[in-house]
Amino acid sequence: MLHPFSHINPCTFHTHLDLRYDPKVVALLSRIVVFTAVLFYHTIWHAPTYHRKFAKSQLGLSLHVVTGLFEYFRYWLSTARSKFYTSQTAVPLPDELDLLCSLVWSWTSLMLVRTLRRGDPLTTRPPYQVAACMRPFATAAAYLFRIPSLHTLSVYTLEGFIWTRLAIFYFSRTPYLNDLVKASTIYAISVPLAAVFSIRQSQVPGASVVFLLAMSLTRSLNQWVSRQSQALRDPQIKETKPMWERRLVVGLRTLGFVELDELRVVAKEQALEMKVHDEYVQETWD
């Protein structure tokens, strides 16, 4: 007598069992849940007033969010789909659309962080600036030279947003740091910590060390541009500087690679002049 399940191929059954519990699919689903929860919370409590409170472009903020989410979930959907159709996990390579999204995301990121006042601007802005510069280069290199790990690194950098919000929530809502430090200090701690952690999660050898060094160099660059910008305000000193150096300082300053105190004096932008009532902004900026 034939067994009732004798017609089922064991190999086929085993393959489907693996697919059901495939870690890449689980990773995709878990990220959808976490991103949805964080974005839902962030959208309800912060997004409606963020662009008005800090005088940010609503279009720039929307493009920043949409391009980041599109590129991020496109990567994870491609990873999960490769396992579903081929029974093998393949790390996707970026295409022209991914490259375009990373460029738009990076440009809007630089524009948003240019006048960022939350946390300690001296140390909070460099992680964002490094990520904004690193991602398009990593994506372009992955596209041109067919290096999947660089695309993975670029995509994992986007998780810094989620880890930052989770870190802020943990430090401010649990007894660990609650009532011990100000909210602006918690923000200043969470941003670089989350950025390095997200880079580390990509498992690209040496990436987190390079990111740490890049943050330090960016901090030094902001200081250098600030000093040169202050000097250029003196007409006599300005005449002694070569044209290329003056243009370099102005260009870097326009992109936001300068300390906010100097940018506040030179640019006189509404985003830096207006009073803001925000728990993550230091009192000196109120």
TrEMBL record:
Annotated protein name in UniProt: Uncharacterized protein
Lineage top rank: taxon: Eukaryota
